[in-house]
Amino acid sequence: MAEDRDFLKHVHEAGLCARLFEALPDIVFCLKDSDRRYRAANLAFAGRLGLRDPARLIGRRAEDFFPAEMAAAYRKQDQLVLGQGRSITDELELISNGDGGTGWFLATKIPLHDASGAIIGLASISRDLRQPAAGEAELAGVARVADHVRAHLDEALKTEDLARIAGLTATQLDRRMRRVYHLTTAQFIRKSRIENAAVLLASTRRPIAEIALECGYGDQTALTRQFRATVGMPPAAFREHRRKNR
Fold first, then answer.
1. How far is CA 145 from CA 37, 38, 165, 212, 219, in A?
2. CA atoms of 212 and 196, how far apart (whole Å)
3. What is the DSSP letter of 109?
4. Could you give the CA distance from residue 172 to residue 141 in angstroms, rounded to a whole number?
5. Which of 2, 5, 192, 210 has the largest count of CB atoms under 10 Å?
6. Cβ contact 36:62 at 8 Å
7. Across residues 80-106, what is the average pLDDT?
8. Domain covering 2-128 assigned CATH 3.90.550.10 in the classification
9. Three-state DSSP state, 85
């Protein structure tokens, strides 16, 4: 069928891309068909799942590898791309890795089309948001902003106020934050709050409502909504998942 030939062409191209991405270990790459099955992936993707060989992903779906709630979130994303042809760009995600730890990624998913314009699959890349190298965060007051955010998570944090701490305009601060952390200022605040919440959920038995307030959310519902959007599961499910994987 023409659709199969088109997809196989994309798979061939994706295979070339996957080999290129092996030289970029902080980039996770995969290709899925219209049935959400993996058709190509690079070594970094396999490693994120605790696998040595990307071939073990081929023909399988996210629910075969990820916790149920997280897989459901990925399925929802995939259906948005496959069903509506919408791209997802720089979606901030906290991911559970194969070793039981977690990592931050910026995810992008785009639809793949055949010659007639029909959607036949999707391509996905995720950038591993590693900590900046020593000295990078000192750039133009960015370190002061990062320290202030982490020390005041329970307060209102506005970009304009943070920019004044750095001696910059809001636009200049966003540019510096992207250069150092690959995130906008708003994304960095969100990452810091969810990151702190994840640590508290995994390491303490404190009530979720109390954790929500400490991390700058008005109530448990606000934390749950943001946590689910970022992690793919609500706080209670994340706590249970981390407890089982200790």
1. 42, 40, 7, 22, 25
2. 10
3. E
4. 11
5. 192
6. yes
7. 83
8. no
9. coil
What token pair was written down for 239? 């706590």
Closest by alpha carbon to 103, among 70, 127, 76? 127
d(CA 165, CA 23): 38
Secondary structure class of 216 (helix, strand, coil): coil
For 244, other C-beta atoms within 10 Å of its C-beta total: 9
- C-beta of residue 38 within 8 angstroms of C-beta of residue 30: yes
Confidence class for position 141, pLDDT limits 50, 70, 90: confident
The 10s digit of each residue's pLDDT in 26-77 is 788 899 999 999 998 888 888 888 888 999 999 999 999 988 888 888 999 9
For domain 136-244, the CATH architecture is Orthogonal Bundle (1.10)
d(CA 192, CA 204): 18
Using the 8-state DSSP alphabet, how is residue 152 labeled?
-
Domain range list for the chain: 2-128, 136-244
DSSP label of 141: G
Say how far apart CA 46 and CA 54 lie, in whole Å: 5
Helical segments of the chain, H only: 2-21, 43-48, 68-84, 142-151, 159-166, 170-181, 185-203, 208-214, 220-231, 235-244
Give residue 30's Cα distance to chain centre.
Answer: 14
Q: Quick check: helix, strand or coil at residue 60?
A: coil
Which helix (H) or strand (E) segment is 50 a member of? none
Q: State the Cα–Cα distance between residues 244 and 236, nearest whole angstrom.
A: 13
Rounded-to-integer distance, Cα 192 and Cα 195, Å: 5
